[in-house]
Amino acid sequence: MLSDCKFSGLLTDLYELTMAAGYVQSGFEARATFELYVRSLPERRNYLVAAGLEQALEFLENMRFSGEEIAYIRNLPVFGKVSSKFFDYLSDFRFTGDVCAIPEGTIYFPGEPVLRVTAPIVQAQLVETSLLSILHFQSVIASKAARITAAAAGRQVIEFGSRRAHGIEAGVLAARAAYIGGCEGTSNTYAGHRFNIPVYGTQAHSWIMAHADEAEAFSSFLDVFPQATLLVDTYNVRAAVEKIIALGRKPHGIRLDSGNVLADSEWLRNRLDQVGWNDVEVFVSGDLDEERIESLLNSSARINGFGVGTALSTSSDAPALGVIYKLVEVDVGGRVQSAAKFSEDKHTYPGSKQVFRFSNPDGILSHDIIGHEDESYPGAQPLLVGVMREGHRINAKESGAGAHAAQKRFLAGRDRLPKAIRGLDAAVRFPVQYSRKLEDLFIQFRENLASSRT
Amino acid sequence: MLSDCKFSGLLTDLYELTMAAGYVQSGFEARATFELYVRSLPERRNYLVAAGLEQALEFLENMRFSGEEIAYIRNLPVFGKVSSKFFDYLSDFRFTGDVCAIPEGTIYFPGEPVLRVTAPIVQAQLVETSLLSILHFQSVIASKAARITAAAAGRQVIEFGSRRAHGIEAGVLAARAAYIGGCEGTSNTYAGHRFNIPVYGTQAHSWIMAHADEAEAFSSFLDVFPQATLLVDTYNVRAAVEKIIALGRKPHGIRLDSGNVLADSEWLRNRLDQVGWNDVEVFVSGDLDEERIESLLNSSARINGFGVGTALSTSSDAPALGVIYKLVEVDVGGRVQSAAKFSEDKHTYPGSKQVFRFSNPDGILSHDIIGHEDESYPGAQPLLVGVMREGHRINAKESGAGAHAAQKRFLAGRDRLPKAIRGLDAAVRFPVQYSRKLEDLFIQFRENLASSRT
Question: Do the Cβ atoms of B448 and B127 come closer than 8 Å?
């Protein structure tokens, strides 16, 4: 949709631009560190999955302001007192900061920074909105996919939700994130091409409806696609299956998209086995989510694979996470100062952080410590790694490698979660605590604030 | 994000491409009519708002397959038996169909087609996924915005949700759709530029946190932006307000983003009035939705405007609608045949349709009839109008005119809804029925089906 604006500097909330103008005009020069993290888990999530970093870094490398865009800002009445120094700044804008991040596919928890930006404060501020938007969305979808693929317990899950994702771009990126969260592929052909993800498709009701005869509709489709999965619920499921059997042409699979899927899948499996079609797969779609899949499998439904649409591509039960991007440190001319927010109901921890992950001897994760970045814990894995230095990606991956590596990382990580955290039910929270050093910094900051700022 | 693919033909589910190949290869030539509509209302919606047509038509006019994309499809194993006739077809692909649609900003109800495509069946099929995706998303957001702006009862509502929309494109288009649904503007600067929507912004906590002294932070911001709205909840709301008053520099407004907004807004209004700052506006943001706004206003909160983020930009209580695109008519060599789906739990109405809207003498809407397109009802307004002929837009609007005209249409339409439908609570459903002629067609189709197809 937005070809003309992929990396536009205008892709930001207006207040980022007013604050940027304020910093430039008032000559406030500082190097700032911001951290991006999620405040809390939605009710039906036990963990989250990092995703979207590849797109976020691509944005940081390429964000620019065109002359026309700068003219637009300059003409907004609110910028009436802003001097040309700021507009010159925008025309030369390049992101030159350093970025650390948790690699895509890593499992993470609330409070844990998934990205840390250190840059001149104007730059770090201007990229806030887009960083949040890019990393939030893919993490929402990957975390939902993680539940759905867990429920399918090894059976194939294909992402089918482009048509009800939040726009065309969201459909493409949902396919990518769903793949990271363990899906085997997607119906989104663009995502297949762009990210080298396996694509899958069957046939729609319209194919059957356009033909005067249902048997002819199946037959002519098999002529072109001998390995097709045929859709049998346009009129009457069992009648349709008998027509396919009568054709004597074995398809790859049969798809059920409505009706009593449990009963029909049992009948279908038996009927297929009866005629010796034991290898014809039963594929189910239509308003599925992780609870429905778990319930079907608990009822011993004999299903080989699932196509999951809307619930996955919109994460319909939890379409957003409380993700924020907070200033934690400011360096004004070499004087490093911590920063935090202490409003009545919300506060943040000051200081530049690292997440330390601890495992039991059997490899199962035991707990995380959110510490200061200069701490070290023998035996723990630090999750944040350097991904960008002075505006350039470190070890930029070939296109497509990102999603595959991320899926692999996620699947390995899920296997190391305590069993209760891995499941669908609300579990005892995975233990995450702040380090002693961060707690001290927090207390000290609050005391300074009480004495000096308020 | 997706500059290289804005109008890519790959932006579709794989099965659209396999069916297209099936039609081309089997020589099945027909002119088909598909209709796009929503099956049912989410629990907390009394009506829906049409939005996204401008982007949908832009897509239809520009959708193409590049050589590289065609090579990708050709190399997919599933296309192994597909002849070059199909790939030649793709390289020449242009959408040449006719489109009727309900104008953006029109209020509509389940079952009512918002778009009707008549085109060679291959074309009509290939555009399904993108049409659904584009029209669904903006309608979801405009319908949510309609509730939020209704709750605000004339007070300013600004869309603030880009950072948690489903990606960058979704943020931009959510801003557009929210504007159609009655918002006064957006914080999304790109959307402001692209769609000529008013943009708004205040300042973030980081501005305050980056300065060693809160009063200095306010003061230096006012130096550059004398008409600023200042954010007072970084540390302590009342202390911050006193600092602003002590500066003696009157801002345009004060923003509360957390805490006890009801109590703080009352205290703030009184305090501002006390010092003679009666025209300084109280602006509230932070986890707002229509219920929260209604509850604040029912408690007589004294608030001038609201910034609404996540709940609006993701329509968090109902992030998706059951929107479908169904074949209703096929014309094979002049023989016009109705089409419908009759699975056990879902059926569709055959025939090419029009929506007829009836009003009472006082202008308030009384009911809709979904009829056959060749019917006519004196005094009723037909909602679907021709918007594209042979692949070209009829009366293509200047960029930006679309969202403004649509907002105007929506606001006028909302005033004509029966009062119960206009409100937030679940109402008696607005009366929508199928015409006698469509009911007869439905029965006839079902009987034909029973005798011939199953």
Answer: no
